[in-house]
Amino acid sequence: MTLSVPSARAVDLRLEPVDDVLSRVERSLQVRIDRDTVIRKRRSVGGRTDRNTWVRTERRSFERVETQGSNGPETAAVLRGVAMPRWQTGLTWRDENEPVMWRADETELVNEPPVGQAALVIEDPRLPDTWWAGLDALAAQHTPRVATPDTQSMTQELVDLTIRQVFPEVPDLTADEWTPAHADLTWANVLGPELCIIDWEDWGMAPRGLDAATLWGNALAVPALADRVWAERRPDLESRSGRLMALFFCAKIMGPYAHESDPRLEPARKQAARLVT
Question: Tens digit of pLDDT for each residue in 139-174?
């Protein structure tokens, strides 16, 4: 008999109390986290420590742990030539009350700011040429991990379901190239003007072009930047799998949870029409 993994309640750590979680991390790692520096996101909370490092703590359901584990930042530490904070140590514990695992990772403190304060950008950050060149290193790596964009395991089935619910007329959605991807390469997870990529919990194998499509799609409200992303990442985005990933991202913007106030929505509709054609 196969036992199902219990489901955890949906939680937004921007709204939930996290003092007890941070206190536990401090005791276990023997650090003090400066509460004035704490950044809270939907699935994680991080802050600067008294030994000049950064500690990021993530809440992950048993369902996600079963499919991918909970040690993304630790496994990413072995990647070669990829611009990221140097990983130092980690801590994992099981929640006493919910089917949830907590994971804290202590890394090098990086002083470069995020390119965007949220997933998308509303103005051109005018990044230098060297910044774009640094994005090539990840795809040359190897991993058995499966990427989990938006917490969903990246499979051919997910590609089919996501695109077909918006663009049922596309006949063949087979992604023919798969490469390692960060899988959450939003403008909030890339730093600049010197490139550094943070938040590695979702990385793994995905169709070629997923990361490029994520940067491009989250730049659609700034046409000049979206054009720059496409030009810089053209080999990825103009591959068969890359065009599918661009359409995959447009489908997410235009799908069941679309918001008319989303500044990416109208540009996504226009780009999707081009991609479908």
Answer: 989 999 999 999 899 999 999 999 999 999 999 999
Structural domains of the chain, count: 2
Under 8 Å between Cβ of 46 and 33? no
As a whole number of angstroms, the distance between CA 257 and CA 151 comes to: 16
Q: How many helices (H) and strands (E) does the chain have?
A: 10, 9
Q: 57 and 136: one domain?
A: no
> Is the residue at 52 inside a domain?
yes
Helix ranges, the chain (H): 19-29, 62-68, 72-76, 129-133, 156-164, 210-217, 223-232, 234-237, 240-254, 265-276
Closest CA to 174 of 149, 157, 151, 152: 157
pTM: 0.91
Q: Coil, helix or strand for 94?
A: strand
Q: Name the residue range of residue 91's domain.
A: 19-108
On whether the CB atoms of residues 82 and 197 are closer than 8 A, the answer is yes
**Share of residues in the chain with pLDDT > 90 (%):** 83
- DSSP assignment string, 169-192: T--------EEEE-S---TTSEET
12: alpha, beta or left? (left if phi > 0; alpha if psi -120 to 50):
beta
Report the distance separating Cα 185 and Cα 198, nearest Å: 9
Asked if residue 124 has pLDDT above 60, the reply is yes
